[in-house]
Amino acid sequence: MRLLKLFVLPLCAAVALSAPLTSATATGAVAQAAQAAAKPPPVPMLWRVSDADNAVFLLGSFHLLRADDYPLSPDIDRAFAASDKLVFEVAPEEMFDPSVGQRFLQRARYDDGRTLSQTLPADLREKLNRVLAKNGRALSQVDALEPWFVNLSLVLGVSQSLGFSPQLGLDQYLMRQAAEAGKGATGLESMDHQLDVMDASPADEQIKALREFLDRPTEVPGMLEEMHTAWREADLAKLDEKARVEMQLKQPQTYRIVNVERNEAWVPQIQKLLDEQKKGDSLVVVGSLHLLGSDGLVERLRAKGYKIERICSACAAGTADLAPMPPPPAPVGPPVRLTDEPREGGPSGATKPEGKAGERKPKH
Predict the structure, then answer these.
(1) How far apart (Å, rounded) are the C-alpha atoms in residues 23 and 4?
(2) Could you give the CA distance from residue 39 to residue 58 in angstroms, rounded to a whole number?
(3) In 10 A of CB 7, how many CB atoms?
(4) 327 burial class (0-12, 13-18, 19+ CB within 10 angstroms)?
(5) Residue 10: CB partners within 8 Å, gap ≥ 6?
(6) Is 364 exposed, middle or buried (0-12, 13-18, 19+ CB in 10 A)?
(7) For the chain, how far is it from start to end, CA to CA, in angstroms?
(8) What's the pLDDT tens digit per position in 54-111?
(9) What are the tens digits of pLDDT across the range 105-162?
(10) pTM for this entry
(11) CA 276 – CA 296 distance, rounded (Å)
């Protein structure tokens, strides 16, 4: 299901801003943490990409998490401590700009006079009416919205009823951590570009994705749990098969827009972090699917000649590209709290790193 895939794709704006259309049980992070049984930290989807002088850590994110997904792996803590700056899909100050909500809704509405009722086939309108009615809503309340937004809102409602929270997502957690540690944090693309991506999916693929939800709404919780478990276990094969490959086959144009084109735009920016800096490492946090397959950032950067190492102390010997982490630097500050309370204006104290330029140097 396409919108489930977006939770591990680089579209954190969606989960941060979209209001669910289905009912959700609001569960605070503190209560969740108190009730949760102890779990081992999630196995990180973490790679080190390096040349002769410095390195970039690539970390695969999941945009909605639970309190018991924390603490993170020590591998991530060490990569964070070793990095001078963090790079996200969108810079924190852009993601938490108060105007984003209005801009997001502008993309979600039809701009050509059509309505959702006119766009959807009759059987799909009836199924959507039934789902909305169960949650005290009517089709007339969402008739101005495009199918992708309605689908996203439905899936977010289910995810929140299962205890998932965008405020606990890996992106937002690390944004807060960077702010509290005084590390610079920038973005690979603008918020407006990311919003345009959300709105760029072809109409037929939007309707197809909505139909997948409405044809089997009772299966969605299990599908989300399966995706989350695969991320927690860093099951690259399952994530690749169930998410990336499935999306590529079922919604090829959407896959190209949200995955391939974005990867192509990001590789040169990651190269600059390596080629134009003589020292200083960076931690790049993107949706997990952007690190998978031949279209992914890992393989694209390998093809450029950089050294690729998988950073995973919990992985078995023989794991592809497996390498030990370097010794950790000294602690940088107090632990970052988990919170479900959104902060006005985003993570306070976020700073922008100073730009650096230098000579290109040969790859290894």
Answers:
(1) 18
(2) 24
(3) 30
(4) exposed
(5) 89, 188, 194, 258, 262, 286, 287, 290
(6) exposed
(7) 39
(8) 999 999 999 999 999 999 999 999 999 999 999 999 999 999 999 998 999 999 999 9
(9) 999 999 999 999 999 999 999 999 999 999 899 999 999 999 999 999 999 999 999 9
(10) 0.83
(11) 22
Sheet containing 322-323: give its strands across.
184-187, 83-88, 281-287, 55-61, 46-50, 307-311, 322-323
Distances (CA, A) of 97 to 194, 215, 336: 14, 36, 22
The residue whose two tokens read 């801009």 is: 103
Amino acid (one-letter) located at 108: A
Residue located via tokens 């943490």? 33
Buried b (16+ CB within 10 A) or exposed e, 73-99: bebbbbbbbbbebbbbbbbbbbbbeee
Encoding tokens for residue 261? 């084109």
Give residues with Cβ within 8 angstroms of 274, minimum separation 6: 49, 50, 51, 53, 54, 55, 56, 306
